Amino acid sequence: VYGIPQAINTGDTLFTRSRLALHRLTDLGFSDAKVLRLMRLYDETCLRLCEGQYIDIWASEHDETMSVELYFDMIGRKTAALISASIEAGALLATDDEHVIGRYRAFGWALGIAFQLNDDLLGIWGAEHSTGKEPTDLARHKKTLPVIYAFEHATPADRARLDALYRNGAPTALEVEEAVAILERSGARDYTRDEARRYRDRAIGELDGEPVLSCLMFAVQAADRKIRTVEGLSQGAALHPIQESFVEHHAIQCGFCTPGFLTLAVGALERQPAIGEGELVEILSTNLCRCTGDEN
Predict the structure, then answer these.
(1) Which residues contact 250 (CB under 8 A, 6 or more apart)?
(2) Of 237, 240, 216, the residue nearest 228 (C-alpha)
(3) Hey, what's the torsion of the CAs at 47, 148, 120, 123, to 10 degrees?
(4) Rounded Cα distance, 46 and 81, in Å
(5) Each residue of 213-231: pLDDT tens digit?
(6) What is the per-residue pLDDT across 149-171, written as a single tens digit (0 to 9) for each?
(7) What is the distance between the alpha carbons of residues 176 and 165, in angstroms, rounded to a whole number?
(8) Is-contact 257 290, C-beta < 8 A?
(9) Interatomic CA distance for residues 167 and 153, integer angstroms
(10) Pick from 15, 207, 190: which is nearest to 117 by CA?
(11) What pLDDT digit, counting tens, does each position of 101-116 carry?
């Protein structure tokens, strides 16, 4: 409506405002060092997005189909980098524990890959009445993973036919169905689904046995994972030493927050037995507490 120059100018404005938003963290009490680290994460992620978008634009402007390996590199710099940075930012604000931050970073990256591959499936085989999104990737000649895989693994005859269909500027519904059949014969649908599940499992596996931030994880994501709750700290009737210490020092009020404090403390001490008091307090401060004010 307003033309390309104003669109570019508006984009620059939004980019600048997003950076200014990071500075507001200082007003919320976060240290300058933490804000600077977040700004570096933000800038590095923006650079990765530009690199991934360069690959995407180049591929759309050339007849050559990128390889499966290059496609994973591209989405690793786009969707995965964006989701990974978003989750890492939340972890950075919640804790100074580098081990936890690293696990959340890896969780976000693998989750981003899984998300993109699932979106590739929906773009071809998705049911519009369920997703609200019409599966138009083939009609729009998008070269997502199923298509790229088919070009690499289909029979010579199917590959030639798929190439001809992709050169057709306005494929009919029957031609789109024919392309779908070629993808399925080549195993592209099964391959993409298997890879999406593999990266999903890899993402959730990053959180096995780790204290997790409830604001960053859905309960359904914990299905079939290794989970240790406060009940798992004791050995029968024998309390864990941390539990005994809580009792000895009366570090309990209403009990709402106690399980979180216990599991966080045990996890932190298991990873770093010689942890300093200040660092441990910082980790425990991420736990939700209804009473507040308990100095024990």
Answers:
(1) 296
(2) 240
(3) 120
(4) 9
(5) 677 677 777 777 777 888 8
(6) 999 999 999 999 999 998 888 88
(7) 8
(8) yes
(9) 19
(10) 190
(11) 999 999 999 999 999 9
